[in-house]
Design brief:
Number of helices: 17
Structural class: alpha/beta
Helix content: 25-40%
Oligomer: single chain
């Protein structure tokens, strides 16, 4: 490949290499140089992060034209190498003139410490597409670390596609202790693209299949998937799924009953916007939640399988209200079965607390604002079986929860409620294994840097304590600088796709060397830069076309029924 040059300083951490202009070397190649030291020979492995070309013997910029007229200059191509590993570990620089060569196979794995990984999973391929880049599973399954964070511009960074590739890799790598019982929950925030994970992709080429084989992964769609979608907006009618791309019997519409809403303390997730008002209302929210929980417990004593609670409804006098200084009367406890009635009962509870009237007024104004938006999600089950419409994330290996079509308050409620359910059920098992991966896109919406909200606190708790319970957060956002610092800083794996130029200069991307920050601004779709604790430098990777359909037109149609076609022709 070339030799270590003597016109630039060579150190144990970086050096320059003169390249033969015919050598097919590009950035990101892994190299090795063997050199003699006072204690014996050592090997320095490294990654090429800069390649530059210049004319030797020229002084002025215009000499490039003079060179064509006969000025004696020579082309010089040199590569800058950032050292990743020294074997044995003796920090001594290579000597000018030492031979440098590109590595592959076992030496490539050694250069990136992949030979030290006891349990590993494919992160993708090197950009040369000749080597597989692995991640250390011990830094994801909670043994030494946990969580993944992905940043990138929407539409180009392919965050969602890469996330599903990582899940496919994790579930099929053979390194998980209990893959059959490992679960993944994906919150689908964009359209219905993730409702085809169980369908094979008709765009898959032989080259893509070969790359899956290279990574020892099956080029198949997910085989154990369930889809939950919101119901249509008919709070009292039959429960119908809100979906256009799949048949109604292929998805499950989800909802919560008034009983489960009260019992599980879910009122807080109707106040998920991270604002100062939410923080001021939190005390009142918790007071009301306690009363609702007590009502649910009482109802379960008499009807364990019911969906309703018994609460007093507030009775307003005609044309009068608290503003008039008149006391409001209350009615005897009544059966509450739907969200609209529940709001009336909550108003009665809120009015009986010691909170200021202004706080109660603000609380009720925001609650009444959710009435139309939430009545289809918190509803009377009518003739349906509530158990069948609960989100049961243990029923299949992969669960997609669609948020498409919901208002913002509905999205926050569903995400917060399901996160709470998963965390409580995982912690109740008392064991970290089997793992549960949670994919949350648009973290800047649910866990913003400033402000307070219950869903932000829930995500922060998972980021800080989820490792011990085997709850692994795979978060994604366009701009990490707008997400709560601890949620961005805790993940062991930090990944970026194409970054906005201004965003790339933020301190949150300090793990990227300057050259890779520049690269992140021009990355194309399907390219990511991965940083993990085991490897001292981030590594650019690429990944093949998803083997599963990512939209309706990619779904591979079943082969034609030749017998049926023959019968039709004969008839």
């Amino acid at each position: 490949m070339g030799r270590v040059i003597g016109t630039q300083d060579a150190t144990p951490l970086e050096f320059w290499v003169w390249l033969d202009e015919t050598e097919p070397v590009q950035q990101d190649e892994m190299i090795v140089v063997e050199t003699d030291t006072p204690v014996g020979p050592i090997k320095l492995f490294g990654m090429v992060d800069i390649i530059r070309a210049r004319h030797q013997g020229s002084t002025f910029d215009s000499d490039v034209v003079e060179a064509e007229r006969g000025l004696p200059v020579e082309l010089s191509i040199a590569a800058h190498v950032r050292v990743t590993r020294i074997d044995p570990e003796y920090y001594y620089p290579p000597r000018p003139g030492d031979q440098v060569r590109v590595v592959s196979g076992e030496e490539y794995a050694k250069a990136l410490f992949m030979d030290k990984m006891e349990r590993k999973f494919p992160l993708g391929l090197a950009l040369s597409r000749k080597e597989v880049v692995y991640g250390n599973l011990d830094f994801l399954n909670g043994r030494k670390g946990a969580h993944i964070n992905i940043s990138g511009v929407s539409g180009i960074a392919t965050k969602t596609t890469y996330t599903t590739f990582l899940l496919h890799s994790l579930l099929n790598c053979g390194a998980l202790s209990d893959p059959a019982n490992t679960h993944a929950i994906i919150f689908n925030v964009k359209g219905e693209d993730l409702l085809f994970l169980d369908k094979k992709n008709n765009q898959l080429s032989p080259g893509d299949i070969a790359e899956y084989e290279m990574m020892e992964l099956p080029a198949e769609a997910f085989d154990s998937v369930q889809f939950y979608v919101p119901p249509v907006d008919n709070g009292n009618g039959p429960i119908q799924p809100r979906v256009g791309a799949r048949k109604a019997d292929e998805v499950t519409p989800y909802f919560w009953t008034v009983r489960s809403f009260c019992r599980d303390h879910l009122l807080r997730y109707l106040f998920t916007d991270a604002s100062e008002d939410s923080s001021l209302l939190s005390t009142l929210v918790y007071q009301v939640e306690r009363r609702l929980s007590e009502a649910a417990e009482e109802a379960e004593k008499t009807d364990p399988n019911g969906a309703s609670v018994f609460l007093q409804l507030r009775k307003r006098k005609s044309g009068k209200g608290e503003e008039d200084g008149e006391e409001s009367a209350v009615e005897p406890p009544q059966e509450i079965r739907d969200f609209r009635s529940l709001i009336g009962a909550i108003e009665a509870i809120a009015s009986s607390t010691n909170q200021a009237s202004g706080t109660i007024g603000a609380f009720m104004r925001r609650l009444y604002g959710t009435e139309e938006k939430m009545s289809s999600i918190i509803r009377d089950p009518s003739d349906a079986d509530p158990q069948r419409h609960m989100i049961n994330w243990r029923a299949k290996q992969v669960t997609v929860v669609s948020l498409t079509g919901l208002y913002e308050v509905g999205k926050g409620f569903v995400v917060g409620s399901v996160l709470q359910q998963i965390q409580e059920e995982k912690e109740a098992t008392g064991s970290a294994e089997p793992l549960c991966f949670i994919v949350v896109d648009e973290l800047n919406r649910y866990a913003p840097r400033d402000g307070w909200s219950p869903i932000r606190e829930r995500l922060l708790e998972i980021a800080e304590r989820g490792r011990s319970s085997g709850t692994i957060l795979i978060g994604a956002q366009q701009t990490a600088s707008e997400v709560e610092r601890r949620i961005v800083a805790n993940p062991a794996f930090r990944i970026v796709g194409r970054l906005d130029a201004a965003e790339a200069e933020r301190a949150e991307y300090g793990f990227l060397p300057p050259t890779l920050r520049q690269r992140a601004k021009i990355l194309t779709s399907g390219r990511m830069i991965v940083s993990q604790p085991d490897i001292p430098t981030p590594v650019p990777v690429c990944f093949p076309m998803p083997a599963w359909a990512t939209r309706a037109e990619e779904v591979e149609m079943p082969p034609p029924n030749l017998k049926l076609a023959k019968v039709r022709r004969s008839s």
